[in-house]
Amino acid sequence: PSNSLILHNIYLAAPSTVSSILVKTRAELHASKGDDVTLSCTFTSSNTPTSKMTVDWSYRPQTGGPPQTFFHFSSRAFPPLDGQFTSRIQWKGSPARGDASISLVNATLNDNGTFTCSVRNPPDVHGSPTSHTVLTITPKVPSIRFSDVAVLLALILLPSAVITVFLIGRMICPRKKHSKSKAYRSPIEVTEG
Question: What region holds the Ig-like domain (predicted)?
Fold first, then answer.
């Protein structure tokens, strides 16, 4: 065999240096209705992020259906202009630190579903460029705030306690009747003689 054929076969057998990217999100996330939720997404790339790096977030409702892209980042954030996430998405990412996170403001029960973070950083074309988070929003449990408890204590229990202590004090230590001096007589009192 010729030398060029041998070199060609060695080149094919040698491991190639493939650029790759790895995207990670939390598998599940739980929050209450009305909460602000951070959808974290981190990535590692063989190459430093450049202006060609892009981030896309998509959402598939819990009820099913195709995923819909609602957020895009390419040198700057492009939040949704319409749909259920309008004015409710904030970019929290920092590509230089491998962060592509967003924040969902004022979560609703309609936000239950799967959120997918996709990161592209050419020439990194292999690896795991997407990751999914299943978000579950539950109704907020009603709770008594400290201020409510303080008002109840101040308006009901405190006066009741003062009155109770006063009455117990009267029962234990009754007031002594002051006897009037016997020398004193009323001007309308009739005297004998």
Answer: 15-136
61-102: per-residue pLDDT in tens? Answer: 999 899 999 999 999 999 999 999 999 999 999 999 999 999
d(CA 85, CA 61): 12
Strands laid side by side in the 113-120 sheet: 28-32, 130-138, 113-120, 54-61, 68-73, 77-78
Q: CB of 55 within 8 A of CB of 119? A: yes
DSSP 174: P
Residue 164, pLDDT score: 82
pLDDT range class, residue 120, cuts 50, 70, 90: very high
Residues paired with residue 113 on neighbouring β-strands, in sequence order: 61, 135
| Cα–Cα dist 71/73, whole Å | 7
Q: What's phi and psi for 19, nearest 5 deg? A: -75, 135
| Whole-angstrom distance, CA of residue 147 vs CA of residue 18 | 60
DSSP category for residue 193: -
- Collapse the DSSP code of 164 into the 3-class scheme (helix H, G, I; strand E, B; otherwise coil) and give the result: helix
Classify residue 86 by its DSSP letter: T
Q: Are 116 and 57 in contact (CB under 8 A)?
A: yes
113-120 and 126-128 as β-strands: parallel, antiparallel, unpaired? unpaired
